[in-house]
Design goal:
343 residues; alpha+beta; Heat Shock Protein 90; 10 helices; 5 strands
Length: 343
């Protein structure tokens, strides 16, 4: 009988409890009225009202307390879910109300499906990261191959052409002033083309990165791109630091993108580039005092408008297991913070 009572829905328990109050009140009231005929009606009414209220409160408190205990347990479960603990499950052992039991089972089913979908999303995300890593690796290999071909073929051919032009210029008689001017113009054009090819080679694969390290490569790139447009650069670079080739290449590309954004969009006058190491991480930051932007929507808008700069930076940072923080306010400049593991 007690087990059947516990399994009743809450509404039936409340109705049953109040029915008990009415029955007890009717029987008790009749007996007391017959026993206390000499007591005044007002006193009897006050006594019955007080006794009925106390009895009703006691019975309803017992019923609601026993029924609300599993609800409190479910509330604690939902609060843990809200904090991000999707592995938690609602306990069914102490829930005797059938409606609450069905709710708890539905909640556990939902959590199970959520966990399955989360595992699927993480699997797809891991696959996407592996694919992105392969794409970036293939991209760097392609850059390296093109840079090598430009250096070994195009740059060498231009250097030989420049040498031949200088030899021809020396062989032209001094009185052939017009011819000497044309040859001089050809020499200047050849020198400019050779310098442009060398700049392209460095953009594709900076030899300084392999030879002297990350700090030297970043300093050279910043000086050659920011100072010509009037941006004063302050460097806070630890020159002696070296790391894994993959990490150094990714950090250089991130700095390269940040510097390119300053050149193209920032309209800045000053920039600060910081590079250091903690015991476990690389720390890179690039700051400018330019016109800034809305950092809250920048990454999403970069996708919508097909501006892949910040999106590419984020992808590289995530592939290295690091964190990216972009702080910018319109009219007050931008700072990009990057933390990535040493290896």
């Amino acid at each position: 009988m007690l087990n059947r009572w516990k399994r009743l829905p809450l509404v039936y328990k409340v109705l049953g409890g109040n029915a008990v109050v009415i029955i007890v009140g009717a029987i008790g009231g009749t007996y007391i009225t017959q026993s206390l005929l000499e007591v005044s009606g007002i006193e009897l009414a006050l006594f019955f009202a007080t006794a009925g209220i106390l009895l009703s409160l006691a019975i309803n408190y017992f019923i609601l307390r026993s029924a609300l205990y599993p609800i409190e347990a479910l509330q604690r479960t939902v609060e843990r879910i809200d904090r991000g603990d999707t592995a938690v499950r609602a306990s069914l052992t102490n829930i005797e109300d059938p409606q609450l039991a069905r709710f708890a089972q539905a909640l556990n089913t939902m959590l199970g499906r959520l966990a399955a979908h989360t595992r699927m999303i993480e699997t797809h995300r891991a696959q996407l990261r592996r694919m992105s890593a392969r794409v970036l690796s293939a991209q760097e290999d392609k850059r390296k191959r093109i840079a090598r071909e430009l250096h070994d073929q195009t740059s060498s051919s231009l250097a030989r052409m420049l040498l031949n032009i200088e030899m021809i210029g020396e062989a032209v008689p001094a009185e052939s002033q017009e011819m000497r001017e044309k040859i001089g113009g050809m020499r200047v054009l050849c020198e400019q083309t050779l310098e442009s090819v060398r700049q392209i080679i460095f953009d594709l694969r900076p030899t300084l990165l392999d030879d002297l390290g990350l700090a030297s490569a970043i300093r050279w790139y910043a000086k050659n791109n920011l100072e010509p447009i009037g941006v004063q650069v302050q460097f806070e670079l630890a020159n002696e630091l070296r790391g894994a080739s993959l990490v150094e290449t990714a950090l250089f590309r991130i700095a390269q993108e940040a510097i390119t954004n300053i050149v193209r969009h920032a309209q800045a006058q000053h920039a600060t580039i910081h590079l250091s190491q903690s015991p476990t991480h690389w720390l890179l930051s690039v700051q400018d005092d330019g016109r800034g932007f809305d950092s809250a929507t920048a990454l999403n808008e970069s996708l919508a408008d097909q501006r892949w700069g910040l999106f590419g930076v984020r992808e590289r940072v995530e592939l290295l297991g690091g964190t990216l923080n972009v702080e910018s306010t319109i009219g007050k400049g931008t700072i990009i913070h990057v933390h990535v593991p040493l290896e």
